[in-house]
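Figure 6 in text form: structure in, sequence out.
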């Protein structure tokens, strides 16, 4: 029997504590051996079998094969480079980097070193997104004319945290926008152009807390939107096709389930209430597929064993950064930004 892949986790905030550590623990191919965090007491309480180390100690530990980087966005690139140079396989929390050229450079470094490098775009495994993919693959909507994706919240108060600060990688475009953009690119590839409007709407807002992106694909229009003061949420998805339309309300439940202690394999994991199923305008209710965030680390284990691809390629994650860069430029210059292939 192959020994579990000894893993070190850098960062124990929301991403590290709620997503990476429990999802890693649910996959027998891995063991969480070390955590680097300022929240040492929390990490030791939750994972008594893992050592709490400094970042330098963790990266220098020769017994660790995989390093997960779940730190603030502006530190991703430097830590990923250090981990690759130390001979580790690397998982980077989204967004991959804050510069698309740097993302591609890290991809080249990983290939040169013969290491797996992947990015945690977990919402590729949202149940509603998997349902969207199935509907499109089955051609149930016919020729698609518009695709609308919302990630709205009601958070009227600005919090004192780096995600809401005016710092590189701060704001909802880099946070929530990277999810919506990645899903769109998975379905349709890179757009011909990007037009964006970015706003700071809340009193005291220090970073983008509202965005609206238009991605053009020939006759198809893709709208990606997020607001922070939304009392009555819009549908999560609205797809308009020549044969039918499909809409669906509510976010995938897996993040909430992880916060409540539910884990992959437990009863109800990844399943939304039936009343939140999407609906075709002509064809009625479409039962949603279950979400499966556990697929990320399961596929990574296969990749590290040399038996398949990584779950998310660094190249595809770099394309997300290209679109964010174009969106920021569009908002700054007030014009449509073409994206050459």
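Output sequence:
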């Amino acid at each position: 029997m192959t020994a579990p892949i000894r893993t070190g986790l850098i960062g124990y905030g929301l991403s590290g504590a709620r997503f990476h550590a429990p999802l890693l623990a649910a996959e027998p191919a891995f063991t969480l051996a070390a955590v680097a965090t300022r929240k040492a007491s929390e990490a030791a309480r939750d994972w008594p079998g893992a050592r709490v180390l400094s970042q330098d100690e963790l990266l220098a530990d020769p017994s660790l094969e995989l390093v997960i980087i779940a730190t603030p966005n502006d530190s991703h690139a430097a830590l990923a480079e250090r981990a690759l140079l130390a001979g580790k396989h690397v998982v980077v929390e989204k967004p991959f980097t804050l510069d698309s050229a740097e993302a591609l450079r890290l991809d080249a470094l990983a290939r040169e070193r013969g290491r797996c490098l992947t990015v945690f775009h977990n919402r590729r495994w949202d149940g509603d997104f998997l349902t969207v993919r199935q509907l499109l693959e089955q051609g149930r909507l016919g020729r698609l004319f518009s695709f609308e994706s919302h990630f709205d919240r009601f958070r009227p108060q600005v919090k004192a945290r780096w995600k809401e600060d005016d710092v590189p990688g701060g704001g909802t475009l880099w946070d929530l926008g990277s999810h919506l953009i990645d899903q769109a690119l998975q379905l349709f590839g890179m757009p011909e152009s990007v037009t964006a409007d970015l706003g700071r709407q809340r009193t005291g807002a220090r970073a983008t807390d509202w965005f609206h992106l238009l991605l053009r694909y020939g006759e198809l229009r893709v709208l990606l939107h997020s607001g922070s003061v939304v009392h009555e949420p819009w549908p999560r998805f609205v797809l308009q096709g020549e044969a039918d339309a499909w809409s669906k309300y509510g976010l995938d439940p897996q993040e909430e389930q992880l916060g409540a202690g539910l884990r992959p394999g437990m009863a109800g994991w990844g399943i939304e209430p039936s009343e939140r199923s999407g609906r075709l305008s002509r064809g009625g209710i479409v039962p949603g597929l279950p979400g499966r965030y556990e697929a990320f680390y399961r596929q990574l284990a296969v990749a590290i064993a040399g038996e398949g691809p990584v779950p998310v390629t660094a190249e595809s994650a770099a394309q997300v950064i290209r679109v964010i860069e174009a969106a920021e430029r569009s908002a700054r210059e007030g014009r449509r930004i073409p994206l050459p292939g």
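Caption detail: The longest helix spans residues 314-333.
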